[in-house]
Design a protein that fits this description.
The chain is mainly α. The protein has one domain. The chain is built from two helices and no strands. The longest helix is centred in the middle third of the chain and has 10 residues. The radius of gyration is 16 Å and the shape is elongated. It starts with a helix and ends in a 32-residue tail after the last helix.
């Protein structure tokens, strides 16, 4: 789930009603189509691995 900074603050606020938080997630988050998706190497799944190469698309 990806929210704007203002919506994220509202979503995290303990005073935000549960119903409002649910509606934010269901209707106000960024849709999957807003992102570019690609496969990455399996090394991404290992917390010991570091470096900029981890975010390169897999061949």
């Amino acid at each position: 789930m990806v929210l704007t900074p203002d919506l994220a603050r509202e979503w995290l606020d303990p005073a935000t009603p549960k119903e409002r938080a649910e509606q934010m997630v269901l209707h106000q988050g960024e849709r999957a189509e807003a992102f570019e998706w690609f496969k990455v190497d399996t090394a991404v799944g290992n917390v010991r691995n570091k470096g900029p190469g981890l975010i390169q698309p897999a061949p």
